[in-house]
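For reproducibility, we list the full input for the copper (II) ion complex.
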Amino acid sequence: MRSARYSTAIAAFLFVCIFAQSGWAGDIKGKVTAAGMRSPENIAVYIDAIPGKTFPPPPKPVVMDQKNLKFVPHVLVVLVGTTVNFLNSDPVGHNVFWPSISGNKKLAHNLGTWPQGQEKSFTFNDLGVASLLCNVHPEMSGYVVVVATPYFAVTNKDGDFEIKDLPPGHYTLAAWSEEGKPVTQAVDVAAATVTVNLTVRR
Ligand SMILES: [Cu+2]
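The corresponding predicted structure, in tokenized form, follows.
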């Protein structure tokens, strides 16, 4: 009886190993708690890097809209090399510029000002955070967070996030937010869903 149970355990273990080797993927489900901040929404959560691995950028551009005098989404996370189409959906002219990427002023850029229905493209080839501004409307702000892996998410209003289809492995999960300090946390992904709780502090 005991040895049968032991054999079953070994079989289960081998089953998991075989699937892990054949590319069986895991998911990260998590919640970010925002300490001393207005909201746990719009926090970028991502696997910071996978050594020795690079990923092709998506073949199609992703869109950052300007609508009702807001950048939509407020926080856009993209894989390095991704082209972002900046669209103006408002009946007024909008400008887009960023004074730096993660403080590097050499990476500042001004896309200019354009009317409703038109868009301008930019390919983000540098890692970091571009703080988007519009020089027509000083109250507008948004962010493009450029990361090194395609494994990222943005928290919803409850701080929940999900990163799907990760190859099993040991990773560093990073969180970036507008108001809080950046944080990282080690996470082990296996052929299942791993639950992570992160706290971001102001
Ligand atoms: Cu504007």
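Residues 2-21 form the longest helix (20 residues). Residues 94, 134, 136-137, 140 surround copper (II) ion (CB under 6 Å). Both points were considered when choosing residues for closer inspection.
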